[in-house]
Amino acid sequence: MIIAILNQKGGVGKTTLSINLAASLARSGARVLLIDADPQGSSLDWAAMRQETPLFPIVGLPRPTIHKEIAQIGKDYDHIVIDGPPRVTELARSAIMAADVILIPVQPSPYDVWAADEVVKLIQDAKIYKETLISFFVINRKITNTAIGRDVGEALAAYPIPILDAAITQRIIFAESAAQGKAVYEIDQTSFAANEIESLKDALLKETNP
Ligand SMILES: Nc1ncnc2c1ncn2[C@@H]1O[C@H](COP(=O)(O)OP(=O)(O)OP(=O)(O)O)[C@@H](O)[C@H]1O
Ligand SMILES: [Mg+2]
Q1: Distance 129 CA to ligand 1 centre (A)
Q2: Who surrounds ion ligand 2 at CB < 5 A?
Q3: What is the pLDDT of residues 182-199, one digit of tens each?
Q4: Which of 120, 134, 173, 175 has the fewest CB neighbours in a 10 Å radius?
Q5: Percentage of the chain with pLDDT > 70?
Q6: What domains lie within the chain, and their CATH numbers?
């Protein structure tokens, strides 16, 4: 399965979710490749911080030809996760064309809900040619014990894209693990963050293989 994690809005958690979802899939025994489609190369930077052996290979492909190259590059893998760039629309479009599933991280803020407009339009355009394409919002950086998570759910309901039934909470361990080039489960496999990532993976697999 090819999973693209996209949102032209910056800083919503594309790289954080890409790395941890890839790690979670690899941990369950799948052969996983991460494609860093962001010219900033954040996933590659993450890998460069790592002392241990890699959890999965990462290739940098910040070119709008991902959809043409992916069959060749990804042929030996069960799952490919594409970490998308902020802003660059041609790259996002190429990643959408390459993908089976799109995950759109959104933070529980009205700005994020409004900014999702752009990626939703790209997905709707692609669906004209690619009827099998599926996509979900993933709420990231939810603050526990606040109503805003529910509010954002209501606001996102205006878009023709469902919300994946697995939100990720705001937790410092995501930044701490990233600084060491690690997945959250490597810092603490019993942590809430690691459990939420497992639930995200399970929800995704359930939606794609019902
Ligand atoms: N659930 C979370 N809890 C705490 N911090 C988070 C969470 N998700 C992301 N972050 C932090 O927010 C910042 C932005 O996250 P990230 O780099 O994953 O976003 P991005 O969408 O890839 O950004 P860009 O658009 O620049 O590529 C990072 O410092 C990351 O550690
Ligand atoms: Mg990023």
Answers
A1: 31
A2: 14-15, 42
A3: 999 999 999 999 999 999
A4: 175
A5: 99
A6: 2-208 (3.40.50.300)
